[in-house]
User: Which sequence fits this backbone?
């Protein structure tokens, strides 16, 4: 890496806050939107019957996020999907603080550029509350996962939750300033 590399947390404080204050007229640094948490989740779906694959999925998810995933259970029974209430249906990880910034740094600078046919994120991925949701088709885009060793590929969802967002355009500007790659 070059010497002019700046991590995401520093970029937020040194570059994003001043620009957002100027463009949207915030009076204080604390009024500027900020990232509260990042939630990573995946369903175990077709792997559910194979305990070995579910354990591998859990291990890979922990390696990607640097934190042990929590089990998510079905809230209600759905006969069409062969799901009973309380059955394990997936995993989720909530990242906050430094771990969150480290993960986002890795996502923006390493993982997303490595994904096949990546042309940028869609601005439609940002909801009215300013939360960005990114669907990742293959978990092997993360550097912790060896593509040669990964026999089964799973997808996951990354949801980045912001605070203090009044309008969607503020969130779009915020993510662009942080360096998220959006389509032109």
Assistant:
């Amino acid at each position: 890496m070059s010497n002019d590399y700046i991590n995401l947390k520093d970029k937020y404080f040194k570059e994003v806050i001043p620009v957002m204050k100027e463009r949207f007229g915030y009076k204080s640094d604390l009024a500027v939107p900020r990232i509260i948490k990042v939630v990573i989740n995946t369903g175990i779906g077709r792997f559910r019957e194979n305990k070995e694959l579910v354990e591998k999925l859990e291990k890979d998810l922990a390696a990607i996020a640097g934190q042990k995933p929590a089990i998510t259970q079905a809230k209600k029974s759905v006969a069409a999907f062969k799901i009973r209430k309380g059955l394990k249906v997936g995993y989720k990880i909530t990242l906050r603080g430094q771990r969150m910034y480290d993960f986002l740094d890795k996502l923006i600078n390493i993982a997303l550029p490595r994904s096949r046919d990546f042309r940028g994120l869609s601005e439609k991925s940002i909801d009215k509350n300013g939360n960005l949701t990114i669907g990742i088709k293959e978990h092997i885009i993360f550097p912790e996962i060896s593509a040669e060793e990964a026999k089964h590929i799973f997808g996951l969802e990354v949801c980045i939750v912001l605070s203090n967002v009044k309008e969607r355009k503020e969130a779009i500007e915020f993510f662009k300033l942080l360096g998220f790659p959006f389509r032109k």
Observations:
- Residues 111 and 136 are 10 Å apart (CA to CA).
